[in-house]
Amino acid sequence: MAKIDLKNWQIKFIGEVEETFQPKIDAFFAQRPDCKNKVHFMGEIVDRRQLFEYYAQSKIICMPSKRESFGFAILEAMSMGNYLVGSDAISSINQLTDNGRFGHIVPSDNVKAMKKALQEVMEDDFYNKEMARDIIEYAGQYSWQNILPDLDAAIKQKVKTQAGSK
Question: What is the value of pTM for the model shown?
Answer without folding.
Answer: 0.85
